[in-house]
Design brief:
single chain, alpha/beta, Aspartate Aminotransferase, domain 1, seven-stranded mixed beta sheet, three-stranded antiparallel beta sheet, about 15% strand, globular
Amino acid sequence: MVEPAGDSVLAYLDYNATAPVRPQAMEAVLAAMREAGNASSTHRSGHEAAARVTVARRQLAELLSCSPGELIFTSGATEANNLALRAAFSAGGAIVTSMVEHPAVLETAKHLTRQQSDLLRLVPVDGEGVLDRDAFHCALAEGGAALVSLMAANNETGVLTDLGPIVEAAHAAGALVHTDATQMVGRLPIDLAVLDVDLLSLSAHKFGGPQGVGALFVRRGVQLPHHPLIYGGGQERGWRAGTLNVPGIAGAGAAAEAAHYGMADESTRVAQLRDALETALVEQIDDCRINGTAARRLPGVTSITFTGAPADAVLAAMPDVAASEGSACSSGAPGPSHVLLAMGRSREEAEATVRFSMGPGSTGPDVTQAVTSAIRAVRKVRAALSAPV
């Protein structure tokens, strides 16, 4: 638990929006900020800054089982997604992606294909949020696919994508494969020596690093033209110009190293907390539904629909719990979740859905507090909406 601005202790269950900064990351950020030095400078201070970047690149590479030279530091996964899609699309061909991707992928893909809409192929999912494999293979069978972009784990439901067969089919069709692994990195193992994706995006703040820093993995040997979003110097092998964010990068590396240690035990513990939360809410709240429960999911993530209780009202009625309606990146967007609509939920169901997400700092008392507060909030909202005007 953390101390909010008010009097009560806040149960923080919004790790999918951003995870609390790990102590190791905080120390690395502060250490880097105490020293002046541009990582591109040739004097001693510059060399020391560059050394911090080198260490962080190695720490992140060890988490992903890739080469440090295959990582390009960015401002986050949104920028990494943009770089990946723009580079692949510029080589010519169609983009194959799913209807439940993060807006950083969907909106970029729509923008790139705005003048040739037939070059965007959106693959549906089933009622559990799992990719429709038949539809995916049909999209590839149309021919001319330049890139397949599918998220490793959904940010709203936690549903995992079985990437192995997808990569094999895409490569057989001559397409590159990109995965937005933002929610999976640091929570479940990713072995890029085995998983043969060509491009992967991540954000440090999802696994306990600072906000505003991420990375794009580009597999060695993949030939893609550089299409940077920011022009200027030749930093990051020409993919991203600008002075490197040394404190942020150092924090990202330290967070990656901390996440790597004890990941298996931590994922089991957090999954048990999620299961306890779901069981208690389903048992004690009528018309309560877990989304994606029949699929493989991230540990610690649950999407719960409280029928007849709009999520915004429920969240407002439980100020001692930090949760969300869905993706923090689209929380200001009008309309219900595109993910839940693609899963066949009605507009009313989508608007009555709350996402709880947990991580390393989550505890049993957090879950107890969230259960108590959610029960009270849902009952209060339903009573208010059913009362005569």
